[in-house]
C-alpha cells in the first residue's frame, strides 16, 4: 500500500497579502528614485537662477522664487495639491541632502515613504553629529513600527539628539522673539 502526502497549496489570502507587501517594497524603492529626481529638478532650477520679474509688490528673493516655482510646477505636473508637492520637495531634500541612512532604507524597500516623511519632518533643526545619530537610529527603528508610532518615537529621539534641553531651547526662542508693526 502506498500513501501519498497531499501537497498543500498556499492559501490565496496569504499569497495576496505577501504580494501587497512586495508591491509596497517596490513602491518604496521607486519613492527613493523619485526623491533623487525631485532634488535633481531643484538643482537644475537653481542653476537657472530664476528671479522675480513682477512689477507690483515686494520683490521676492531668488530662493523664494525657486521654491514657489518648483512647488507650483511639481504640483501641476503630478496633479498634487501645492501642500503635498511642498511636502514631497521638503522630504526629498531632507532625504537626499541630510538623511542618507533613511534614504538607503527607503531605496531598499525597508521603509515606506510615510516613514520617511515622519523622519524628515522631525529632523528639522538637527545638525552635525546629532543629525547623523538621529538618522541612523530612526532608519533602524522605523522598520519595526508604523508611521504613527514612529512619529511619537521620533519626537523622543529628537530630544535625545539635541545638544541642549527643551527648556534651554524655549528660553533662547523666547529671548529672540520680536514683533514688528
- Note the beta-strand portion: under 5%
Distance between the termini: 98 Å
Order of helices and strands: HHHHHHHH
Total DSSP helices: 8
Tally of separate domains: 1
Largest sheet: none
Which outline best applies? extended
Main attributes of the structure:
181 residues; mainly alpha; single chain; 8 helices
Short description:
The chain is an all-alpha fold and 181 residues long.
Notes on the structure:
This protein has 181 residues and is an all-alpha fold. The protein has one domain (12-176). It has eight helices and no strands. It has helices spanning 12-48, 62-78, 82-97, 100-107, 113-123, 128-142, 147-161, 166-176. α2 (62-78) crosses α3 (82-97). The protein is extended, with a radius of gyration of 22 Å.
List the helices and strands and how they pair.
Blueprint: H1 12-48, H2 62-78, H3 82-97, H4 100-107, H5 113-123, H6 128-142, H7 147-161, H8 166-176
